Each structure stands twice: as C-alpha cells, then as structure tokens.
Amino acid sequence: MEADAPDLDALLRTLRVWDTDLPDFDPDRTPQDPLPLFTQWFAEAVAAGQREPHAPALATTDADGHADVRVVMLHGADERGWHFASHAGSAKGRQLAGTPYAALGFYWSVQGRQVRVRGTVTTGAAEAAQADLHARSTGALASALVGHQSEVLASQDELARASAAAWERAQREPETVVASWTVYALRPDEVEFFQGDARRRHVRLRYRRGDGHWHKELLWP
Predict the structure, then answer these.
(1) Fewer beta carbons within 10 Å, N or C terminal of the chain?
(2) How far is CA 180 from CA 16, 21, 122, 123, 197, in A?
(3) Which of 144, 203, 211 lies closest to 173, judged by CA?
(4) Which of 85, 90, 55 is nearest to 186 (CA)?
(5) 122 vs 185: CA distance, rounded Å
(6) DSSP state string for 97-124
(7) pLDDT in 10s for each residue of the chain, 221 residues
(8) With contact defined as beta carbons under 8 Å apart, do 145 and 181 qualify?
(9) Distance between CA atoms of 205 and 221, rounded to whole angstroms?
C-alpha cells in the first residue's frame, strides 16, 4: 500500500522566507552600469553562505512561443554579457538558435535578493567553447562526451554504459574536442536588482539599455 501523499497546502503554510536580517539597499548609491553592482551582490552572496549562487534559472522559448526554464551554471560576466554553456543540440540550444533571446534569474535567499537579466543571446567562438570545457573537471568533460542531452533515454542501463565509456575517454584524452559544446553570452537589455524587505517594502532597481547608455529606474514592489 502506498503511503498517503503529504498535504502540500499544509506544508506551504508552515514555510517562511527571509528568516534572517536583510541588508539595506540604497538605489541612489549604485553605479551607472549594472555589472559592478551584480559583481558586488554576487560576492556578498558568497560571503553570506548562499549555496550555489552561480546557478541561475535560464528561461527560453520554443518554436511555438512556449516558455521553458531550467537551472544552469554561470561561467562569467563581463562587458559582452552573462555567460553559460551547453550542447548546441540540447533543448535550450535549439531554442536559442530559433529565438536568441533569453532571461536569467538569480535568487539569493540568505539576503532576500534577486537579480533578473534578460536580453539577446549570442554564441562564442568554437575555440572559446573548447577552452571553457577543458578548464572544467573530468566529470564535466565526460558528461559532454556522453552527449544526447534532452533526447529520450531508453533505460538507465544505457546511460550507465555511455557514462562509463565517456569517463574512461575523458581520463585518457583530456583534450578531446566536443564539437557541440557551445558558450553563450546573454547581452542584457534589462537588469533588475530586487532587495527584499521584512515589511514588504521591497526595493526594485531596474537598469534599461537605451541610446548607448544605461538608464536606472525604480519599480513598485
């Protein structure tokens, strides 16, 4: 006999958010460009003990205009944009090829902060993609060598065999080229910084790109 399913509504009513002292955020004392503020907030999230602060949600759209989302790993951020990587043939890769516009959402609960980034996505050079892949762990290379991301899997045994072979090759040939591995850069049109407030007077600061400059504006929470 199956155990009774938990009462989701009851569980939700027991949960709270931001059970900590939240930092102050003065939007009048922010840089003109969003990247330095993102870097500062990211460093503060790491210092505050946020788990996996470099794992944002990436939202894309498919050929029918339907939204899709998954968690990815941030590989960097600079004047070219916010960087992440994947197989070109994965679901996200195919969606970005068809609609090269996406959004990233970072949530750092230890400080009640969110950062939302959205804009046009471009692909980097093949050499940069291979350098990115080979700078990572043996496991990352083995996973890339397995390939078939987002395809239907017949069984777990099939995955186990492919994974074992990929691990052996990754250890034997650490410079192996994985042609489908692609580095993407999201060049933002908008970046929003959200600072939670215990009294729900949240601070939302949005940067919008226009006329070659960044413009800052506050949003109602």
Answers:
(1) N
(2) 42, 45, 15, 12, 44
(3) 144
(4) 85
(5) 5
(6) HHS-EEEEEEEEGGGTEEEEEEEEEEE-
(7) 467 889 999 999 999 888 888 999 999 999 999 999 999 999 999 999 999 999 999 999 999 999 999 999 999 999 999 999 999 999 999 999 999 999 999 999 999 999 999 999 999 998 888 888 888 778 788 888 888 777 888 889 888 898 888 888 888 888 888 888 999 999 999 999 999 998 899 999 999 999 989 999 999 99
(8) no
(9) 10
According to DSSP, residue 131 is labeled H
Alpha carbon separation from 6 to 10, 13, 14, 16, 103 (Å, rounded): 8, 13, 13, 18, 33
Q: Which of 52, 12, 69, 30 is nearest to 192 (CA)?
A: 30
Report DSSP letters for 152-181, one per residue: PPS-HHHHHHHHHHHHHHHHH-TT---TTE
SS3 28: helix
Instruction: State pLDDT tens for residues 97-114.
Output: 999 999 999 999 999 999
Token pair, residue 55, equals: 């794992």
Tell me if residue 139 falls in helix, strand or coil.
helix
Given a contact cutoff of 8 angstroms between Cβ atoms, the answer to whether 142 and 210 are in contact is no
How far apart are the C-alpha atoms of 49 and 189, rounded to whole Å?
30
| 50 and 43 Cβ atoms separated by less than 8 Å | no
Query: Rounded to an integer, what distance in angstroms lies between the CA atom of residue 33 and that of residue 209?
Result: 10
